[in-house]
Structures are given as C-alpha cells and as structure tokens.
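Q: Structure tokens for this one, please.
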Amino acid sequence: MVQNVTSGELKRFVFSDKKPAMILFTGSWCVDCTAFRPTWERWNLGKSGPVFVLEIKRGDAAWQEWELPEIPTVAVYQNGNLIGKANDRISSDDLDELWKLISPG
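A: Here is the predicted structure, written as tokens:
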C-alpha cells in the first residue's frame, strides 16, 4: 500500500529509523509526473511494503534536501543510504529492478 507522507515523516523513517523505503518524488504541477502516474499505479497494484509518495512543490526545500535531479524520481533507501534511483523515462521494469533491492525473496 502506497503512503503519502511529508518530507519530515519520510526523513525520520529513512534516516532515523533506517528502514528500507521506495519513494516516488512527484508533483501535481509536473507534466512528466502526470504522464508517469498510470505506470506507477499499475505497477503498485498488490504491492505491500515500504512504498511512499512525496508530493514536491516547485522550489520546495525538499527538492534540495532529497538531492533530486528532476521529478518524477523513484529512489530506494536502505539503512539510511540511497541504493538505487531512476528518473526521466521510468518504466515498470525499472520499478521492478528497484523493488528487488529492498523486497525480501
């Protein structure tokens, strides 16, 4: 189940608690994000685990805090470290590869 979170909640989960997480950084104002949304929603069906969405506003401090080159960006963290990232033209195959980095089995 995907959880919408704030940047503060996400930082606590990823960096303080050091839990694994797959995060979609997106923005409702972003044309590329809107185009990617159906791929994300189809891929996410039936997934359970640490999957989050962080809505970013243009010029928001979270953009710099998370060191995003662009959005949409999907990033995977484990033990407080970035271990995988995809942006630009993200496919469901890209999402599968990122998911394998933190999913058991």
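A few notes: The first strand starts at residue 2 and ends at 4. The CA atoms of residues 11 and 103 lie 20 Å apart.
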